[in-house]
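Many introductory courses stop at the sequence. We go one step further.
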Amino acid sequence: MTDTSTPGTDSHRSPTASKRSFLTQLEIDTRLLGMIGAFVLVCLVFNVLTDGRFLTPRNIFNLTIQTVSVAIMATGMVFVIVTRHIDLSVGAMLATCSAAMAITQTDILPKMLGLGLGHPLIPWISILAGLIVGTVIGAFQGWLVGYLTIPAFIVTLGGLLIWRNVAWYMTDGQTIGPLDETFRNFGGINGTLGETWSWVVGVIAVVLALWALSASRRNKIGHGFPVKPVWAEAIVGLIITVGILGFVAILNAYEVPTARLIREFKANGEAMPEGYTAAYGIPYSVLLLIAIAIGMTVIAKRTRLGRYIFATGGNPDAAELSGINTRLLTVKIFALMGALVALSAVVASARLTNHSNDIGTLDELRVIAAAVIGGTALAGGIGTIHGAILGALIMQSLQSGMAMVGVDAPLQNIVVGAVLVLAVWIDIVYRRRTGGK
């Protein structure tokens, strides 16, 4: 019997081609899928090595709040690297911003304005002070890079040395604390939504995510663009829903220790009811990261600034010839990086409950590694916010897992450095095979 089927029909498709077709219809980035697979593999390996302790609700909660500080800075580092620059000073800048906020809380506000301990304005004024310090430092470094044309590597390498020691002189080398109680809520474990509000936020997040998918589909149809099949949209929506609600369920599974509950009830002059339990839920720091991630994604994809950033990174000469003020753009990017460093300093110092001299040490390595592992090309022009956050999560998972296994700190840094080099090599190979896309 003669085979009448033609090339390209289902009868001639290999299993590999079918998988590619399936992923194509879902419009899932294969590189992102590979990163998620690497993250899952890291978690499973460390879960086996720690006899099941790595994937407990308690450790996942701690892993989440430990990731936030680096992840916030990594979102800004994406813009810096996309425009073919680098910022080696973020860890030192974090220390300066942290010192400025700590001094504002414990010294400046009580003396200048007479605001006593626990005054409701103290945390917000100190955060504003930190934002101003971070933004000004970032803008200054951006001016040196953009207008004086000093290479960003040199400017920020100098900043790494300068700002760390500026922070030391600001505090006379002393640890400053304890910090304001409301301020400490941004650290994670001291400030969470609790079980009920976490579910409320989770459901709202699911509704907004599904609405965004639907709105994007309607927008594409309205402009005559191709859209995914309905079944593919449904699968993506289901994955998002399960991911969000599953994350909330895991955090809600981590219960507040009974001893802490007893202390809290006793502080309020009450007796804890028998059998009473409470869950931590979503930390405020995670909500802050989510808000920043959404904001940075909107900037990247929906604003003129974002278009200018990626256009400049793709071809700086063409961008300048098209009328983009690349010098001012550089100042804006570094100023934004400085503001994000200040917000990261809020989370980091709040988690420690004080300012210490070594805060932010080696964060520049972790932040750059997170951005690069997340798919940001060092050659410029390519990068995603969600990829950088996932990169930060992978980095923190590696460090936390190694710490739980008992790996020494020096060896942890060796592994992190090796992973960074490996990630860059994989990125180079991937872009060669995909034609630089």
